[in-house]
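Students often ask why we bother predicting the structure of a whole assembly rather than each chain alone. The short answer is interfaces. A chain on its own may look different once its partners are present, and contacts between molecules only exist in the joint model. In this exercise we take two input lines together and write out one structure for the complete complex. Read the inputs first and try to guess which parts will touch.
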Amino acid sequence: MQRSASAPRGETAPRTNPLAKLARLPIALLVLIAVFVSVYPVVWIFLSSLKGSTEFTANPMWALPQGLEWSNYARAWTEGNMSKYFVNSVLSVLPALALVIGLGTMAAFGIEIMRWKLRNLTSLLFLAGIMVPIQIVILPLFTMYFKVHLLDTRLALILTYTAFGLPLVVFFLVGYFKSFAREIIEAAIVDGASIYQVFFKIALPMVSNAVVTVALVQFFFMWNDLLVSLTFIQNPDMRTVQSGLLAFTGQYGQREWGPTFASISLAVAPTVLVYLMLNQMVMKGMAAGAVKG
Amino acid sequence: MDRTLRDWRAILFFVGPAMLLYGAVLLVPILWSLGYTVFEGSPIAGFKFVGFDNYARLAQDPTFWKALWFGTKYALFVSAGQVIFGLLLALLYAFYLKRSSVLVRTLVFLPVVLPTVAIAQMFAKLFAIAPQYGLVNSVLANLGLDSLVQAWLGQGDTAFWIIGVMDIWKAMGFYAILLYTGLVDIPEDVIEAARLDGAQGWALSRFVVLPLLAPITVASLIFSLNGTLKVFDSIMALTGGGPGTATTPLTLYMYKTSFTYGEYGYGSTLALTLAVQCLLVTLLIFWRSRRAGGGA
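Now the answer. The structure tokens for the assembled complex follow.
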């Protein structure tokens, strides 16, 4: 066992293969199945969103659309109120993203770089937020928003998304500051920079990659949220994309499959586009978030 | 330098805003929620102190026990599925596809980022029976298997499997990436050494790779159980807990108790049992894995 030379990983030395005994063909088939199962449903939604209403009954469900019924999208956008829901989602997700990233980066800097007594306790309190089920705070929050007239407002969503997102952002960035910012920051302070200059001119640029990664993860959480918007939004005009989609398919989508598929496509589109553009960062961010949680 | 780093105004500037918001929207409500468990009523109807009545009611509430059992059954099934399929995929990525697996990893991860509501609507259409057959029933009918055509989501038992399959499908790519990261982190020379000692194929997986992967597998399992015990979106959007209460886990029962019936005290008590359940599961797995780790 002592003899084993450590080869540079994954380059010249072929990795030992525990599955080698299995023939290659069945494995290739497995891979194909995994990819098909993961991707086909999404493609199916999109293709179905382009079908005319008679096609659903006349042709099998897997048939390709005959014409391209783009009017389904127009109907989802107007009759299905997707335009309103998009505005509501965008106007609550973007401010919440900006807030959670801004406040989270500052807090991470304060916790990891500054020296003060209660920083361990503070960091523990943020950790607790990762473990606690959201369900336990949703009732008191409802009461609170009710009392200060925040129900049915975007501000309620913004505050809730931000607070629920903070633990992950803080932990992610504390880890970053810990691993490689400390010496450089201390050197800058010795050179006479103020702590604010250090934060804005040195620390922030240094963690910008991590910030983008964690912002992506938060974007998916916020855009995909149902529980928060379902709880705090009762006015139909204030619904977000996901709670709107749920209401839409409930009352209308039973009969009108074309516009329903179009509205599902619309609800999915932002996440799919962002993911296709930045998939490596998204995967890395989600995995890192999970391991820390 | 020390003075700069100990400047309390700067500390307040950096940590204050986040702590204020976080405290108001998360920490205080946790305590508030605990307080609710000894009250009855709602903000609109007013509250009445009832001591431990809510806990007594819990013990005798058949719907609660049913929801607890459903949620536990669901969490066990889905977590097992997510981690097992994730592990199989991770082994595929690491040992069969190796470096060229980027595209496959990317595609299999796609469902992870999709909104649960949209996915649930998609599954509702996949398994629909009315007003027209969805994809599954239409395939069955075309294969001449008309006897299998059914209202998949309208029956408690088939609905259970479909929700489970949906949540496994949605998350398996995620666990595959987590476990793949763990696999890649296993030092090359450890596997090389085992191979020189004669371990191959299944034996190498079973006695070398999987034990080395155990910590991250346990982490995945905790993460998965925690997520699935809190399941809300998928069930709410797919079956709404029905038919009847056949697919109602604690989260949905808590939600309906609180917002449909306006019983905040009892709703909070249900939420607390959920939090305790999550905590117990996490502790149990930690304890088991430490024992297993110590014995090996």
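Check your guess against this: The two ends of chain A are 36 Å apart (CA to CA).
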